[in-house]
Amino acid sequence: MAKLYFYYSAMNAGKSTVLLQSAHNYQERGMRVLLLTASIDDRFETGQIASRIGISAEASLFDSNTDLITLVKDENQPKALSCILIDEAQFLTKEQVYDLSEVVDKLRIPVLAFGIRTDFQGELFEGSKALLAWSDKLIELKTVCHCGSKATMVIRLNAQGIPVKEGAQVEIGGNDRYLSVCRKHFKEAVRD
Ligand SMILES: [Zn+2]
């Protein structure tokens, strides 16, 4: 049975590495996969999924207006897709996550979505919220805080290295950096 999988984590837990390894496992058996990543920056026409350990692959782009069912149906011929892998899945809309469940249930293609669970204010991203609710399987990818505890939260640092407490959920083209931390250090960082 095809399933909808959600691999979630904080930042820098190796999501793209796991995604690209999974894609490779299908491809080396001669199977076709569809790779998707979010178009949060419109400077790029073709997408790329890059892992920090140095591997990368081209990917199709989605934004909040992309009709994923039509896209998948178009890509599903002449040779059928064996799997769909989505990076930056936190940026999916609730409706797109529903459509992905349709891809699984009606087209019977497994979907592996990879995303960050919460933003720098500790709130669920729309795509992650829907995926946590609708996926068949939830898989946590782990990374560690500077203190050695499991990092489950993300803080945003401005150019001066000061934690940012307010602002848009997604900062495009800025100099902000993100750091994965445990809940205790998240609370200390965002405390007034
Ligand atoms: Zn910590």
TrEMBL record:
It comes from the Bacteria. It catalyses: thymidine + ATP = dTMP + ADP + H(+). Zn(2+) binds at C145, C147, C182, H185. Substrate binds at V170, E171, I172, G173, Y178. The active site is at E88. Belongs to the thymidine kinase family. GO terms for cellular component: cytosol. It holds the Pfam family TK. Keywords: ATP-binding, Cytoplasm, DNA synthesis, Kinase, Metal-binding, Nucleotide-binding, Transferase, Zinc. GO terms for biological process: DNA biosynthetic process; thymidine metabolic process. One of its GO terms (molecular function) is thymidine kinase activity. ATP binds at S9, A10, M11, N12, A13, G14, K15, S16, D87, E88, A89, Q90. NCBIfam families: PRK04296.1-5 (NF003300). Its EC number is 2.7.1.21. It is found in: Cytoplasm. PROSITE patterns: TK_CELLULAR_TYPE (PS00603). This is Thymidine kinase. InterPro entries: P-loop_NTPase, Thymidine_kinase, Thymidine_kinase_CS. It is an enzyme of class 2 (transferase). SUPFAM superfamilies: Glucocorticoid receptor-like (DNA-binding domain) (SSF57716), P-loop containing nucleoside triphosphate hydrolases (SSF52540). Homotetramer.
